[in-house]
Write a structure and sequence with these properties.
The complex is a heterodimer of chains A (309) and B (115). Helices cover 75% and strands 0% of the residues of chain A. With 309 residues, chain A is mainly α. Chain B has a 3-stranded antiparallel β-sheet with strand order 1-3-2. The chains are: A mainly alpha (309), B alpha+beta (115).
Chain lengths: 309, 115
């Protein structure tokens, strides 16, 4: 791979978070730019020196994409808002429904039904806006919703008896959404941040379902644990916000590291005191994301960590 | 000075495009030639700037076959772009005029002489 090919490959990597149309357009444009430069007789000759001059004139791929993101700040801001804002009222709404109706089957169904409709609506909106990261995020939230609805709807193991089939609907939905989600992950298998980011809604749903909501309903509950859960979730939302606002390649590593730190500390703070360490498996998506990023960028690790982006 | 140059990128690009539709590489060379090498722009600044101008509807673009059957993306200034250019040009003229008025004539001459 020569320097020009390397440049184009690196640019392709950097452009991943932009809409497909913009990606292909810009790649074709830069490719033509390079061809024009190589044929330009005013630029010395067709030697390595010319390649160097041309590459210097191009500027780094990271710089190009950063400038593009800055000029697309409205789009990034909109995506960040659409990733977080619809989630904010969902948890308080679930708590309010539980308080109003009591912890009953009807309240659980209602909570999850509202959540499902919001998430599915956002998937459709994200697809309409051609935002890959946003689509993945909401698709994953939809799947996490039906998965936890299924977990909540089954009183293990008694409900697995014939005749108690009401839990089948979330199961069928989970399989259906899971199929779409699996296809999405396969399409983005070289993109660690997307994989991690879209797997983490399971974590926050777990915090909500098993830590925050049950706590509120227990008289004389420990508010420290409630606030710890709320803090973890909010810090997490801030990291997700950053991922949508600054989707550059260098930031991907920072975001993955921050997610890892929050998930580790959050798990320690929330679940270890109660003796449950099962939540640690949720760190796997982040490690998977890191591994994917490393594998996808193995040729560029050096420039990644030394470039002044 | 770098920030000033960066801030004037849209004005420079629109000025170049006012005469005829051009593609990215051509804009870069034209800018360099007209400013006798004073203004240079990397592709990393030019293409995002062009995309921004297009998003703001100040230019339009279309792919065309050019020399050697190579497909190039040509940018054309719109009427909104022409109005913006005219306003910006006016603002810059006022800005430079007022700035020069602040600089003592002796310094201006010394700088002019040195150049």
């Amino acid at each position: 791979m020569n320097e020009i090919e390397r440049y184009l490959h690196e640019l392709k990597q950097e452009l991943r978070d932009l809409p497909e149309g913009v990606q292909s357009d810009l790649l074709a444009e830069v490719q033509t730019h390079i061809e024009d430069g190589l044929e330009d007789e005013t630029l010395v000759d067709k030697t390595a020196v010319q390649h160097t001059i041309l590459l210097r004139e191009l500027g780094s791929p990271a710089e190009l994409v950063r400038n593009l993101h800055w000029s697309n700040w409205k789009r990034n801001g909109r995506n960040a808002a659409l990733a977080i804002i619809p989630l904010l009222p969902l948890n308080p709404l679930s708590v309010a429904i539980d308080r109003h109706l009591g912890v009953a089957h009807s309240s659980t169904v209602l909570s999850y039904a509202i959540r499902f409709i919001v998430c599915l609506g956002m998937v459709l909106l994200a697809r309409h806006l051609h935002s890959r990261l946003l689509t993945g995020w909401w698709l994953s939230n939809t799947l996490a919703t039906v998965f936890f609805a299924f977990l909540h709807s089954v009183s293990w193991p008694n409900s697995w008896l014939p005749g108690t089939f009401w839990w089948l609907s979330p199961l069928v939905l989970a399989m259906l959404v899971g199929g779409f989600y699996g296809r999405f992950l396969w399409q983005n298998r070289h993109d660690g941040l997307t994989i991690t980011l879209t797997l983490t809604p399971f974590m926050w749903q777990a915090i909500d379902a098993f830590s925050i909501r049950p706590l509120v309903l227990v008289p004389g509950h420990d508010w420290r644990q409630f606030w710890t859960g709320a803090l973890v979730m909010n810090v997490w939302f801030l990291i997700v916000l950053a991922a949508f606002l600054y989707p550059g390649r260098r930031q991907r590593w920072q975001i993955l590291s921050a997610l890892f730190a929050v998930c580790t500390l959050g798990s320690m703070a929330l679940w270890l005191p109660s003796g449950s360490a099962g939540i640690w498996f949720l760190l796997l998506p982040i490690l998977l994301g890191w591994g994917t990023e490393l594998a996808a960028n193995r040729h560029y690790k050096q420039s990644l960590f030394t470039a002044s982006t | 000075m770098q920030q000033l140059k960066k801030g004037s990128t849209p004005l420079m690009v629109l000025s170049i495009l006012q005469e005829e539709p051009m593609y990215g590489y051509q804009i870069m060379r034209e800018l360099e030639e007209r400013s006798q090498g004073y203004f240079t722009m990397t592709a990393a600044s030019l293409y995002p700037a062009l995309h921004k101008l297009e998003a703001d509807k100040l230019v339009t673009s279309n792919w065309q076959e050019g020399d050697g059957n190579r497909r190039r993306k040509y940018y054309t200034i719109t009427s909104k772009g022409k109005d913006t250019l005219s306003n910006h040009a006016q603002e810059w003229q006022t800005f430079t005029k007022q700035l020069l008025a602040l600089i003592p004539p002796s310094l201006r001459q010394a700088k002019g002489g040195a150049a």
